[in-house]
From TrEMBL:
Protein name: Lactonase family protein
Record-linked Pfam families: Lactonase (PF10282)
Top-level taxonomy: Bacteria, Pseudomonadati, Pseudomonadota, Alphaproteobacteria, Sphingomonadales
Source species of the chain: Sphingomonas desiccabilis
GO biological process: glucose metabolic process
Database matches in InterPro entries: Cycloisomerase_2 (IPR050282), Haem_d1_sf (IPR011048), Lactonase_7-beta_prop (IPR019405), WD40/YVTN_repeat-like_dom_sf (IPR015943)
Length: 347
């Protein structure tokens, strides 16, 4: 329920990170209250956190600093103490992924177009230098696709590492080897429509299906994961209403644990598109909801609410979900300039 202080009742801890230049002041705790959402206190001074991932079963978080080209390993259980800091393996890190074993950490570096992968020890610390793949190529959009721009990484259940490259209109698939940290030569799992700009993927929790958000085209692509690791197109849908202005960009994607509801943010239209996902992985648009701010960059899906981080204005908003899983109007807002990432954990 939105009306209960979830972080006190259930032990849920929610925090936000963001970009320093617009005014983000490091990691900030968010509290869900009967009146909506409150910001504070400041938890740690980690700057330019646009992505993070928790090491399962621990209080450890890997957090990127997009400007310093670093990854920090911080312990939330000891007041966000810095445990380690290491290179992202490129420039402009913007996404992280852990494999199921917790022995591999991959990093997407937008600025350099590199995908890096570290082997981790039992404490979650990097072992040796990372394996790095430098992608090559460009797309037809001369302003945004002058070269490769790795925007997302994620491990499939079979251990393959996938990477979305906005600059080359590709989804790459890498073989990996957890015991050695080896990153094999990639294949092109999916060649996206030219100029579409693949941004983020979400894997269905049960079906061999992935959902791709393309930033420049503002589309949602339903992809079947073949046994070979290639991705075949099933459907491509717009994430925007028919009368939307053409200057909007696709943003974040969030899928509920059951794989029945999917959400995509639209930056420019400043909305969240909601989709129903049927047992076969087919999607159906439920509608669009104003996000409550400007440039919704990140979505955090909780049980009965959706938190939205806005990069340009509006901070973080909370959208309650109705019985069908569709978000309603904003029920609260926390003013956090430059908000770019939201994290949640349970003790």
């Amino acid at each position: 329920m939105v009306g209960s202080p979830a972080d006190e009742v259930s032990g849920l801890h929610v925090f936000a990170g963001g970009y320093q230049e617009p005014g983000a002041r490091g990691l900030c705790r968010l509290t869900i209250t009967g009146e909506g959402l409150e910001a504070g206190p400041n938890l740690a001074a980690y700057a330019n956190v646009s992505a993070g991932i928790r090491r399962p079963g621990t209080g450890l978080w890997y957090l990127v600093d997009e400007e310093a080209d670093r990854v920090t390993l911080a312990d939330a259980d000891t007041d966000w103490r810095e445990v380690a800091s290491f290179s992202s393996g490129g420039h402009g890190p913007c996404h992280l992924a852990l494999d199921r074993s917790g022995r591999l950490l991959s990093i997407a570096n937008y600025g350099s177009g590199t995908v890096a992968m570290y082997r981790l020890d039992g404490e979650g610390l990097p072992v040796g230098p990372p394996a790095i793949h430098q992608n090559e190529g460009q797309g037809p959009n001369v302003e945004r696709q002058e070269g490769p721009h790795a925007h997302w990484v994620g491990f499939a259940p079979d251990g393959r590492l996938y990477a979305a490259d906005l600059g080359t209109d590709q989804i790459l698939a890498f073989p990996t080897h957890a015991p050695t940290g080896a990153l094999g030569e990639p294949s092109v799992a999916y060649a996206a429509p030219p100029g579409s700009g693949p941004r983020q993927l979400a894997f269905h929790p049960i079906l061999p299906v992935a959902f791709l958000v393309s930033e420049l085209a503002s589309t949602l692509t339903v992809l079947k994961i073949e046994e070979s690791g290639t991705l075949s197109v099933q459907h491509i849908l717009s994430t925007l209403p028919a009368d939307a202005a053409p200057d909007s960009l696709g943003g974040a994607v969030a899928l509920n644990p059951a794989g029945t509801r999917l959400y995509v943010s639209n930056r420019g239209h400043d909305s969240v598109a909601s989709f129903a996902v049927d047992p076969e992985g087919e999607v159906r648009l439920l509608g669009h909801t104003p996000s409550g701010g400007t440039s919704p960059r990140f979505l955090l899906l909780l049980e009965d609410k959706l938190l939205v981080a806005h990069e340009k204005a509006g901070g973080v908003t909370i959208l309650p979900l109705d019985g069908t899983g569709r978000p309603g109007p904003s029920a609260g807002q926390a003013e956090l300039p430059g908000a770019a990432f939201l994290g949640a954990s349970w003790p």
